[in-house]
Amino acid sequence: MIKISICDDDICQQKRICSLLQQYEEAHPGLAARVSVFSSGPELLNQAEEENGFDLYILDVIMPKMNGIELGLKLRSINSDGVIIYLTTSRDYAVESYLVQAFYYLLKPVDKTAFYTVLDKAVSMLEKQSMASIEVRTANGIRRLSFDEIMYVELAKRFAKYHLTDEKVINSITLRNSFHTEVASLLKDERFTLCGTSFAVNLHHVIAVEKTDLILKGEHRVPLSRSKYIPVKKQWADYWLRRSSV
Description:
246 residues, 8 helices, elongated, alpha/beta
C-alpha cells in the first residue's frame, strides 16, 4: 500500500489530481494506493506526524500561510523522507525545490502524460526500495531488515550493529568474515556507502556532510575519514540528483 497525500488550497486542483490518480490506479491493477487530500500545509503536517509520514507527497507550491517549499522543509524536519512532487504555475521555485530533495517539479495545468511518466518512476522507485532487504544473523535467529529502515551499520569489536530509523539497534552474531563482506549487499545499492573501515551509511538518511562527520536524521553523527570527505559528499549529491531526474 502506497500512502499518497495531496496538498493544494484550490479545490478544483484537488479534484483534478485525485481524478488523475484514480485513472492511474485503474490502469495499474497491481497498485494499491490510499490518497489523502489536504487544503493547507499545517493540516498535512499534523496528519504526517500521526501517520509517521506518507510515501508520496503531491504539493502545490503557492499556498497561503505556508507555501509548498516551507511545507517540504517542515516534512523533512520531522524525518518524513517520502517522495515529493511539486505542482505550480510558476517556475520561480524550481531551484528552491531542490532544498527539500524534491523528486520532480511540474507546471500547471498538469499534463496527464507528463504526470503519469513521473508517477511511473516514483512508484517504481518506492516499490524497489521497499523490496530490498538484508538477512542479519542475530543471537535470536535470522532478522530480515529492509534497506529503507537501516540508517547506518557500524563494526563494534567483532559484530555489526544495525542502527534503524525507529532508533532500535540490531546486533549481529560474531562476524566470521570482514565487515566489508557483511555489508556487501548493502553497498551494491546506490543508497549505501562506506565512510571508512567501520561504517556503512544509508545516504537517504544523511542531511549534511561535514569534513569529519556525516549528520543523519535524528541528530546521529557518523565519523567520516578525511580521505572519504570529497568522494562521499559527491556520492551524496549525485544520489539526490539522480532521484530528482526523470
